[in-house]
Amino acid sequence: MEDREFSLCNVCSKRQSEENVIRVVSTRQCFICRGMLLRLPNVERRIVNLMGRYEFETFSVGMVVPAEVQEREDQLRSELKIRGMETIKSQIARDIIASLESKTRKKLDRKNPDLTVLVDMGQGGLLVTTKSLFLSARYTKPSGVSQKIELCQNCSGRGCDKCRSGRHDRPSIEEILGKKLGNVVGSSKAKFTWIGSEDEESVVYPPGRPFIVEVKNPRRRHVPSRFRVTTGKGMAEVTAVRLLKERPATIPSFVFKTRVFIEPVERLDRLDTSIIRRITRTTIRYRNNKGKDVAKRVYSIRVKKVGKLAAVEIKLDGGLPVKRFISGESVSPSLSEVLGIQLECKKFDILRVWESVPP
Ligand SMILES: [Zn+2]
Ligand SMILES: [Zn+2]
Predict the structure, then answer these.
(1) What does the pLDDT look like over 1-21, one tens digit per residue?
(2) Which of 166, 254, 283, 354 is the most buried (most CB within 10 A)?
(3) Nearest-ligand number for the alpha carbon of 167
């Protein structure tokens, strides 16, 4: 069989090794790329423009080259028995990367880039995605703001005439901070991991409750170390904002101090040192909402006057439900149990949260 002569553009011919059976022609007439390489400078310009809208230090490039282009190169190489040479796809990627490195002065990082651009050489489409930001921080909040976004009870989140959004209209830290962070870093999605929770009525005092948030696909990668937001019920404050290197592998356990308002108040005089000692030396067992029995500790109990009200300050393990530790519902021993009277927790505030090992 006689060798077939292939017509290739200058660039495509240089990737092959058999010069005698290759005729160099204009790019449009090239057997492999059929003029596709002419679009490369324009594609590179568009990528640089797009990247200009993002804050990043490192990038990587993903390529889509039409299958028929790659198949024509494969066919040529199999007929001419050419092996081990660079493919058109990796050449385009290499060209684009070199051009981006020189024009943006940012570094290529294939493993863990801040920004990834996907280039479709066939359709000319560009898609930029960025690495999530993982932040740890603390929040304080006034009474009347829930921690999580609550779904509309009428439609369970689908959206109805009552709510429109699918959400309960009361303010939540999740929604307010999600929006704020979204504005700061140019993202539309924030996913929160809470280190414990409290009630809507609970005040969370400084230094606040720790949390972790993943901000997806951010355009910017800098967040102030503290900021305040209005909630409609008072200010909430976010402090100790830290950028984490990656998604935390574990959620830290914690100990917290709470101020509990209990009724009937007059029975708290029974809460003497011997009873407190008994509780703080005992393992408290409770059934969590997954039906699992969990063992926790209470470290201190102190009766305090707060204005005209009496309150009890308790330091206890994270996870132990405060209201149920007072009332005794699936918790033993509870304060009601040791005092021999049914107590009710009207409200509890969060005074302090200690993380075992910060993320
Ligand atoms: Zn070509
Ligand atoms: Zn609804």
Answers:
(1) 456 789 999 999 999 987 778
(2) 254
(3) 2
CA of 84 to the centre of ligand 1 (A): 18
Chain centre to alpha carbon of residue 271: 44
If asked whether residues 138 and 238 sit together in one domain, one would say yes
Number of domains in the chain: 3
How many angstroms separate the CA atoms of 327 and 343, rounded?
Answer: 5
CATH of the domain at 148: 3.30.70.2510
Range of the domain at 320: 254-355
- Do 280 and 232 reside in the same domain of the chain? no
**Shared domain check, 198 and 231:** yes
Classify residue 221: in a domain, yes or no: yes
Instruction: Tell whether 318 is covered by a domain.
Output: yes
Kindly identify the ligand whose nearest atom is closest to the C-alpha of 37: 1
Span from the CA of 170 to the centroid of ligand 2 (angstroms): 13
Q: Is-contact 149 167, C-beta < 8 A?
A: yes
C-alpha 35 to ligand 1 mean position (Å): 6
Asked if 102 and 176 sit in the same domain, the reply is no
- Please report, to the nearest 10 degrees, the dihedral formed by the alpha carbons of residues 166, 170, 228, 174 taken in order: -40
Ligand 1 centroid–CA 15 distance in Å is 10
Taking the CA of 91 as reference, the closest ligand is 1
- Residues 204 and 304 grouped into a single domain: no
Contact at 8 Å (CB) between 192 and 212?
yes
Exposed/middle/buried for 223, CB within 10 Å: 0-12, 13-18, 19+?
Answer: buried
pLDDT tens digits, one per residue of 216-260: 999 999 999 999 999 999 999 999 999 999 999 998 999 999 999
Nearest residue to 286 (alpha-carbon basis) of 322, 258, 243, 314: 322
Residue 8 falls inside a structural domain: no
27 domain residue, yes or no: no
Distance 151 CA to ligand 2 centre (A): 8
Rounded distance from Cα 91 to ligand 1 centre (Å): 11
